[in-house]
Design goal:
Chain lengths: 217, 272
């Protein structure tokens, strides 16, 4: 019990200092990437479509762990050295972007054609229609799948340990190595991840509820 | 107000509209009737370029377009024509994430870049005009079908178009609430609005139209005053179409018959 309590603070601290900012920053950057990629996929400019497909293909087709290693350990041999934390953010953002590009594309395409036509008949331009009419509705459709991705990102941040980011899991390994209480410490860190995910799930429910204000109950 | 000359529209290789000539004067109400698949809606959608005609001449107010096959229209030209028109859709297509008043304001705020306060005041005036002042802050899902359609009309009026286009505005509505939408349209006519209406409501068409166009298989088969077209049609196809409607109006089909007819004849449930 003493070990549990003693290690709780360092683990939580690592979580708040690394796991949380890693998750928030990567998710924010990733969503922007995802939106741009989805729009590129839906555009009529062929090279943009190819670029978007290529990006999604590469990222989805290779393990996140390998991508992190390439960015952190591989790139320096090309003369590009990136700090561990930044490398983790780049890796996670690219991953979030690729997976959610498809989510956003599907959400945008799920909005009925009549919405486009009604907005066009008012004289709105394509970008105005996207911004004012389509994306707000697509956002609602994509909340559940995006939340999935958000929560799995929280847990994926543990992979950053492999590229020397002293996030929660790395701290847990260090503490376990000293105390030999592997079962206890790893269960403890699992509980903390569970705690973070639970908060986020509650947040998801709030967001969904917010979007439901204009749908039939 | 509107002039079409030799408008053709193909979907792929299939001709939908053939050599359409049309003239709509200012303040006039033109009703387009015809069987399903005759090209009525396509013709209407060509007027605000939701469908681009394959070829022909189109003029609305003082903006015109001459199209040859293979031409693509510049976005700026599309916008010019479009801003002369407002459209009311069969399925209303209100923006579900916006309240009634926000729906009506949207064009003013986004297209005309009006200040929100001003736009809201104008939108409220329009909602009052269609009898929905008290529903301004309701979302579309909270409104009945007839109310939704009246918000749709207010939205189409917001940018003060020269012409209002109605694409079967009552076809998706329950019979008992069709009247409230038709009343609003009647009021607009009184005010001198120029309107082009595609409808299956023949009695209403007769009542409101200054000019009837009967379209079949992409061709204007017959046109004229309502009395002329309804009482003394000169073309065989017009007679057949009107006879079929009469037959259906006189005989109320039994439930079983209605089921039999419903898939083939969309007029069945709509003509009263």
């Amino acid at each position: 019990m003493e070990i549990f309590l003693d290690s709780l603070w360092p683990l939580l601290k690592a979580g708040v200092l690394f796991a949380v900012p890693l998750t928030l920053i990567s998710f924010a950057v990733g969503l922007v990437l995802a939106l741009l990629t989805a729009l590129a996929r839906l555009s009529s400019i062929k090279p943009l479509v190819w670029l978007a497909r290529f990006y999604v293909w590469i990222i989805r087709g290779t393990p996140l762990l390998v991508q992190l290693f390439i960015i952190f350990y591989g790139l320096p041999s090309l003369g590009i050295t990136i700090g561990a934390f930044s490398a983790a953010i780049i890796g996670f953002s690219l991953s979030v972007g690729a997976y959610n590009a498809e989510v956003m594309r599907a959400a945008i395409q799920s909005i009925p054609k009549g919405q486009w036509e009604a907005a066009e008949s008012l004289g709105m331009t394509r970008s105005q229609i996207l911004r004012r009419i389509i994306l707000p509705q697509a956002a609602r459709v994509s909340v559940p799948p995006l939340s999935n991705s958000f929560i799995s990102l929280v847990k994926d941040t543990s992979l950053a340990a492999t590229i020397t980011v002293t996030e929660m899991f790395q701290r847990a390994q260090q503490i376990a190595a000293v105390t030999y209480e592997h079962m206890l410490i790893y269960c403890e860190v699992a509980l903390i991840y569970l705690f973070f995910s639970t908060i986020l799930s509650a947040l998801q429910a709030r967001v969904e509820k917010y979007f439901e204000r204009y749908t039939v109950r | 107000m509107i002039r079409l000359k030799d408008i053709n529209k193909n979907f792929g290789n299939v001709p939908i509209l053939k050599h359409i000539d049309l003239r709509v004067n200012k303040g006039e109400t033109v009703v387009i009737i015809g069987p399903s698949g005759s090209g009525k809606s396509t013709l209407l959608r060509c007027l605000n370029l939701l469908e681009q005609p394959t070829s022909g001449y189109l003029r609305i107010a003082d903006d015109s377009l001459q199209l040859k096959e293979g031409d693509s229209i510049k976005q700026a030209d599309v916008m010019k024509i479009r801003l002369h028109t407002g459209m009311v859709f069969q399925a209303h297509h209100l923006f579900p994430h916006m309240t009634a008043v926000q729906n009506v304001m949207e064009g003013l705020v986004t297209v005309r870049r009006q200040a929100k306060v001003e736009a809201r005041a104008a939108a409220l005036r329009l909602l009052k005009k269609v009898g929905l002042a008290d529903k301004a802050d309701s979302y579309p899902f909270q409104l009945s079908g007839g109310q939704q359609q009246r918000v749709g009309i207010a939205r189409a009026l917001a940018l003060e178009p020269n012409v209002l286009l109605f694409d079967e505005p009552t076809s998706a509505l329950d019979p008992e609430i069709v009247g409230e939408v038709l009343n609003v349209m009647g009021d607009l006519k009184q005010e001198g609005m120029t309107m082009v209406i595609v409808t299956h409501e023949m009695q209403f068409a007769r009542l409101i139209a200054d000019h009837i166009i009967f379209l079949d298989q992409g061709v204007v088969v017959e046109e004229g005053s309502p009395d002329q077209v309804f009482d003394a049609p000169t073309q065989k196809r017009t007679k057949q179409f009107l006879q079929r409607l009469d037959w259906m109006r006189e005989r109320i089909p039994t439930g079983h018959e209605a089921e039999l007819f419903a898939p083939q004849n969309e007029e069945v449930g709509i003509v009263h």
